[in-house]
Amino acid sequence: MKVLVIGSGAREHALCWAIAGSPLLTKLYCAPGNPGIATLAECVPIGMLDIATLVGFAQDNAIDLVVPGPEAPLVAGITDAMEAVGIACCGPTRAAAQLEGSKTFAKQVCNAASIPTALWERFDDAAAALAFVQRRGAPIVVKADGLAAGKGVVVAATVQEAIAAIDSIMQQKRFGEAGSAVVIEECLLGEEVSLLALCDGTDALLLGSAQDYKRVGDGDTGANTGGMGAYSPLPRFPVKLEDACLELIIRPALVEMKRKGMPFRGILFAGLMLTQEGAKLIEFNVRFGDPECQVLLARMQSDLLPALQAACDGELRDFNLRRIDRAAVAVVLAANGYPETPTLGSTINGLDRAAAMPDVSLFHAGTEAGPDGTVVAAGGRVLTICGVGADIGQARERAYAAVDEIAWPGGFCRRDIGAPP
Description:
The protein folds into 4 domains: 2-91, Rossmann fold (3-Layer(aba) Sandwich), CATH 3.40.50.20; 125-180, Dna Ligase, domain 1; 191-313, ATP-grasp fold, B domain (D-amino Acid Aminotransferase, Chain A, domain 1); 327-412, Glycinamide Ribonucleotide Synthetase, Chain A, domain 4. It is built from 13 helices and 23 strands. β1, α1 and β2 (27-32) form a beta-alpha-beta unit. Helix content is 30%, strand content 29%.
C-alpha cells in the first residue's frame, strides 16, 4: 500500500513510525512532514490545508490510503475531496468533523443521543454571554465554538475570569472566527481522561485511554497548551471502565451520527471527566490527540495500517487491536516562551543519544533542518520523548533519562509528567 500522512507534528511522526513497520506498506509519504519524519517517509512540501494540491499529489502517486493527523484539514473537507476521486481517507467527512469543529453541534449530538455531558448554553452575542455568567456565577467554563488548536477553553474560577474569557474570545477575536460564538457550560469536577476509538461508521474499536497535561507548568500551573505530556494506562481507569464508556458515549454518538446521515469514520476522541456521578463527556475530537497518540501507539502491538483501511471500508467488526501490557510516558519539550511567544531558531543537540536509549522513542514536532545537519526549533512544541516500561514509574524514568541527554538551553519541559498524584 502507498500511504500519505498529512501533518507535521509529533503526532504525525508517531503515525508514520507505526505505519512504517507494516508489512503491507510499499511507500510512505508525509505532507509537509518534518526532519524526524523524513527518516521514515518521503516528505512533500504541501501545506495541510492545500486540499486541491494534496488530492492531485495523491492521484499522481497512486496513493491507496490518506491518513490526516490534525483536525483542520478534516474540518476543511479533505476526506470528501479524496473520496470524490476514489482515494480512501481515514477520517470523517466535513459534515461529521463538526463533532470537533463546532462545540454546539457536539452538544446537540450529546443531547439527542443521551450522552452524559455538562449543562450548557450557546451564545453568539457577547452581552448575553456576560449576563449569563453574572447570573450563574463561577466556577464556569467558556469555550470558543470553533477550532482553536486546543487552546479555546477557559475554566474560569471566578466571574471576572469568565468575563475576561468572553471578552478575549468574542470581542478581541483571539481565535478569529472560531470565537464568533461561545459555549458556556457548568464546570465538571473530577479526573480528566482521554478515550480514543477507531470507528467505521457503525462499529468502534478501542485504541485505549491516556491522561494528558494541558497546563504549561509543573503542578498544573500556568497557561493552557496543546499538551505538555501524557501517560497510559491509567491505574484508575481500567479496561472495564474503558469498555463501559465505549457503550455509554462512543457507540451512542455513532448511532446518532448515522441517523443524521453523516456516519463517522476515523478516530473519535472522547475527552471525559470522571465525576462522582460517573463519566461525562467534556468534548469530542475527530483525530488522535497529541501527545496521546504517542503513548497509545507506543503501547500498540498490532499492525495499525490494516485497521485504518478497515475503518474506511466499514469492516472493523471482526478486527482486534492488541496492546502490550506495558506503560508509556510522553514528555513534550517546548521552546522557551511557549505557549504565548515561543523563541524560534535555537539549535538542539543530543538527539541521537536520546533516541538510542533503550525503550525510548523520539518524535519531532516543531523542528526544521539547520545548517550542517543540525536541528533547530521552529515551533512551540518541538519534540516528544516517549519512554516505555513495565509500569508508569519505569516508563517515566526512561523518558526523563532521554530528555536529560538532550542539550537545548532554548527549551523546557514539565518535570511531573506521570508522577504519582
